[in-house]
Amino acid sequence: MFIHAFEGSWFDHPFWRRYFRVETQDQLQRIRHSGIDGIVIDEGRGLGAPEDRLETETREKPQGKRPSASKRSGGEAISLRAAATFAPPSSPARDAPRRRRGYAGECRRAKRAIERTCEAVVDMFDAARLGRAVEVRRMVKLASAIGASIERDSKALINLVRLKEKDEYTYLHSVAVCALMINFARHMGLGPQEVEDLGVAGLLHDVGKVAVSDAILNKPGALSKVEMRSVRSHPVAGHRLLASSPGAPGLALELCLRHHEKIDGSGYPGGLKGDELSLAARMGAICDVYDAVTSNRPYKDAWTPCEALTAMQKWTGHFDPMLLDRFADSLGIFPVGTLVRLSTGELGVIAGSAGDADEDVVVRVFFDCETLSEIEPIDRAIAPAAEHPRIISRDSPNFWRFQDWDALRVRILASSTASAAVPDPDHPIGPRGADR
Fold it and tell me: Which of 229, 233, 300, 423 could form a disulfide with 311 if both were Cys (CB 3.0 to 4.6 A apart)?
């Protein structure tokens, strides 16, 4: 039996993967004794279940005549097979046009929330330098205000918090990670208390940096071994401080200690890997690095969101790849090479950023969903606020049964002289303290 998804909170089941094949009785017993409400299985990738015990979720097959091969420009053929009966759900971030009414007003409210929270984070760091405990109750109230702004319009606050100057990075980075964690958690359907605790965790995750000198944190060049050891001490220092602060949520302690761990075990301080890492740690690692690489730093210029996610996707072993996809969905931003469906009824591949707005993207369209046939590749600039055309979902290449999708994607992206400038995946530039 192949599990495609768990229904209920991520914290209610013992598996770090969202979908996998059940192959042992032990796995089955762990599912039965977990706190989940149900499961969704993919009968196309494994055995089904009795109808009176499990309900499967399917997706309607594309209709129309399916060609066995359709000619692309240049004379090469793209071979297709019958459409699958199962595919991942559409991305909620793109299912409908985002409501822009009151956006300017929400930007003003979000700006005030950011300013208040940043002031509180500065106070927290100052108090921590003097050895005082963190005022957790104050942080909870501020995280709630940020959560309320995100619920009204997630783009307003998340866009504003990215506009940080180099000298205020340390403090606004905490605010940004808080906002990203809340938005991410809401997108994944976590409960209200979990969302709030993860927001507080985002605010507190870097408090251990009070033990590292500003000269090291803001150094433009490479760090020496001694300086790197100092930077890498901050998760443990922060965890120690939070452990002595009354009311600190357990998730805050976890994220503070584990946000520099990597899925392949090469992170620090514990070198944990895979399912040894909690959901909070894996989410936090993504949010922490994403904000770092999209911010101007003394040692690097900011990348656009599309550039950042494209590079992060290629850093094999750094992040949980399935969670990274969910994170991209939560922002409505997709890495270069992602297969997406447009409101025009076409399939395309994200080809890069477009125009002056960081979130505008170029989609290279190559397939017509109505006729189930390939079309001449053409670039369409997609603005997040536009009603049409817009991205309505990330689609699975397996659903469309494209043969050798990786090779096909390369050919599509190479079909035009216009190419997106993306960071070199072999030379990642992460937050200060990450391997670079």
Answer: 423
